[in-house]
Amino acid sequence: MSTGTKSSHSEPSIPSGRDILNDTTAPLDSAARTTLRKWLAMIASGDFGDLDSVIAAEAVYHSPVEWHPYPGHDLVCLLVRTAAGVFEDFKYERQMAGGDSAMLEFSAHVGDIQMKGAHLIRFNSDGGIMDIDLIARPATGVVALGNGVGDKIGPQIKAALTAAGGRKPDVGYGTSDRKGLAP
Fold first, then answer.
1. Is residue 9 part of a domain?
2. In terms of residue numbers, what domain contains 126?
3. Where is this region: Disordered (predicted)?
4. What stretch of H or E contains 177?
5. 135 to 20, 116, 157: CA distances (angstroms)
6. What is d(CA 149, CA 85) in angstroms, rounded to the nearest whole number?
7. Fewer C-beta neighbours within 10 Å, C or N terminus of the chain?
């Protein structure tokens, strides 16, 4: 109910750091743009023949299934290829890019579970993908994705992590106790 007095609220404050309202971030550089085009073509076609060439040697994959990241070119390529085979009806809906990063919003299914998510991708100075962060919802879809990937390559993930420094998987891919656990 209005009291007839004028509200005296101020403009919302912007947290310290980057001013996103006045940001003039440069668009993706040419090498990153070329890589992003290849990535989008691979996802659309399901042909991952160029994947090894776009994933950087220092690449890291952040999964919604586990807290700890998955390091290394070969493991990142394995996870991307396998997850692509678990997702059904995968489609990018929105794309945003600037500086060294891109955000690709997607919709997909895992079995009968409809999912929404995003790939947050960072590129190195040569245009290689050095960081992929997969965020997704709902939790039941994330669990189904983790189970699907784990069923296909769980032992390979466990072996790769052990070889890379001895880290064991959390409760996601590559563990025998992952069934039914939320990420």
1. no
2. 30-165
3. 1-24
4. none
5. 21, 9, 20
6. 9
7. N
User: Taking each helix axis from N to C terminus, what angle separates 139-165 and 73-86, rounded to the nearest 10 degrees?
Assistant: 160
CA 161 – CA 44 distance, rounded (Å): 30
Please state, in angstroms and as integers, the Cα–Cα distance from residue 102 to each residue in 112, 168, 183, following that order: 28, 30, 24
Rounded Cα distance, 102 and 123, in Å = 8
Mean pLDDT over the full length of the chain? 84
Give dist(CA 60, CA 148) in Å, integer. 20
Whole-angstrom distance between the N-terminal and C-terminal Cα of the chain?
44
Q: What is the number of other CB atoms lying within 10 angstroms of the CB of residue 145?
A: 27
pLDDT digits (tens, 9 = 90+) for 111-136: 999 999 999 999 999 999 999 999 99
Residues 140-169: tens digit of each pLDDT = 999 999 999 999 998 898 888 888 776 665
The total of structural domains in the chain comes to: 1
Q: CATH number of the domain that 55 lies in?
A: 3.10.450.50
Predicted confidence band of residue 1 (pLDDT cuts 50, 70, 90): very low
pLDDT in tens, 27-58: 888 999 999 999 999 999 999 999 999 999 99
Q: Is residue 23 part of a domain?
A: no
Q: Which two tokens stand for residue 107?
A: 């919709």
- Mean predicted confidence (pLDDT) in 70-80: 95
